[in-house]
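Translate sequence into structure tokens.
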Amino acid sequence: MPRNQFRRSSDVASFGKGYLHLHDETEEYIYMLCLDTRSRLIALFEMSHGSVDMSVISPREVFQKALLANASNIIMLHNHPSGDSQPSVNDIAVTQRLEDTGIIVGIRVVDHVIIGHENCYSICEDRYISENNNTNTELEKENKNDGN
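Result follows.
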């Protein structure tokens, strides 16, 4: 597994396409990237393998694995086999439930990126993840202060 740093949604999208080949999949897959305090990948989990148009995850399963991996932050990543990367109402609702749960357990949901055939969508960039929870700015500041 590569030890990538994930500072932007484009880093996540590149990983999803280049390493996981999510844009080529004909069924929906959901992955969780577990990150350390410096946004480095420490674990990768396939959380669900669904059908052509849906996949199911629960906050309990997500955070159980994140806690076992000793993650400080997580990023959710999944594909839309239809090729359209726009989030469904359910995608947004699940992301917000994960964010709420993460606040309670102390693991931040940094982003949820959806991979389509030609493009990608960041739920964080459209501010569906609250600014208080969004760590992109904080992570960039921490990395600058650490000399990275």
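Note: The first strand starts at residue 29 and ends at 35.
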